[in-house]
Amino acid sequence: PANQIALITFYQGQ
Amino acid sequence: MFEARVAQAEILKKILDSVRELVEQGNLDCSGTGISLQAMDSSHVSLVALLLKSEGFERYRCDRSINLGINMQSLGKIVKTAGNHDAITLSSEDKGDVLGLMFESTEQDKVSNYEIKLMDVDAEQLAIPVAEYSVCVRMPSAEFARITRDLSTIGDSVLISCTKDGVQFSTTGDTGSGSIVLRQSSSVDDEKKAVVIEVQEPISLSFATKFLVQFSKSAALNESVTLNLGDGVPLMVEYPMKEMGYVRFYLAPKLSN
Q1: What are the backbone angles phi and psi of residue A8, rounded to the nearest 5°?
Q2: Does residue B16 register a pLDDT over 80?
Q3: A12 and B46 in contact by Cβ < 8 A?
């Protein structure tokens, strides 16, 4: 099984 | 005052078709250089980044930058009613609360006017840095659509593994497993049908199948699609639209426990 990472983990909010 | 006219509705229909299932609502950011949209899907795993450059429009005017909060479903439904060859003019007053749409037939014998209510869309804007990708694969967009659709019958995740020899898409599910390998085209008369693989470093990353299937539905935008993969960064799938701009999809990878 693989864990889905959230996109926010990679990109900071502006 | 904002006003943007596209010569043929078809391109707008294709663009909206490619994003409206993934994105419920978003802010169209209109400025002097064009229209952009950045929106995440409801699960915050994928992101659509759309750019429509001002020079891609037949006529374009934007006196001051404005955000148009739009329900993408509503916009898609209305634009769908235009004929493929109709010209479409989008317009909004500086402090207006509607987006106006005017469709004009090629013979100029039919003019349709619609208005869509604008909404406050509280969308978080993400800062996406320019990434250095380890792998760039360019392939026919119809082939990408077929591969994702075929593998979606088996598993929830697709592992994309790329070396200089080729790119492999593989999946495993309760009923079995499957894998498809594409090799770089040795010689192709039509460049749009070519598979071109650029590899700095071999890479293997897993992604949720359902999002890849969603992205691949944009095949109508361009005969080619590029997949950009890098270690520690989301997958970027790009459909360029000639002089108009692009539709890009970003998808966070899945990590093994």
Answers
A1: -60, -25
A2: yes
A3: no
**What is d(CA B19, CA B218) in angstroms, rounded to the nearest whole number?**
8
> Is this complex's ipTM strictly greater than 0.95?
no
- What value does the mean pLDDT of chain B take? 94
| Farthest-apart Cα atoms in chain A, separation | 32
Closest chain A C-alpha to B101 CA, distance in angstroms: 31
Contact A2 B45 (CB under 8 A): no
Q: Alpha-carbon distance B54 to B71, whole Å?
A: 22
Distance from CA of B125 to the nearest CA of A (A): 5
Backbone phi and psi for residue B9, each to the nearest 5 degrees, phi listed first? -65, -25
- Residue A14: its chain B contacts at CB < 8 A? 124-127
**Which residues 61-90 of chain B have a CB within 8 Å of chain A?**
none
Of A4, A10, A14, the CB nearest to B254: A4
